[in-house]
Amino acid sequence: MCLAFPGRIMKIKGDMAIVDFDGVQKEVNVSLIKDAKVGKYVMVHAGFAIQIMGKEDALEVFKLYKEADGK
């Protein structure tokens, strides 16, 4: 099973971005996303942003992952 995690783009430099995953920031490749912009939410799998998503959807996924983790 593969999991993708939502995160918010904080900074972009070329094909790379700093993405915030509920307080943890990581470098992510955004070359697959045509409309990658600071402030947008993306789904990330294996270090690549694979889809843009809305804020409400991202927050719902965060909530579901926390519930599954027992937090």
UniProtKB/TrEMBL annotation:
It holds the Pfam family HupF_HypC. PANTHER family: HYDROGENASE MATURATION FACTOR HYBG. Signal peptide: none annotated. Belongs to the HupF/HypC family. It comes from candidate division WS5 bacterium. One of its GO terms (biological process) is protein maturation. It comes from the Bacteria. This is HypC/HybG/HupF family hydrogenase formation chaperone. One of its GO terms (molecular function) is carbon dioxide binding.
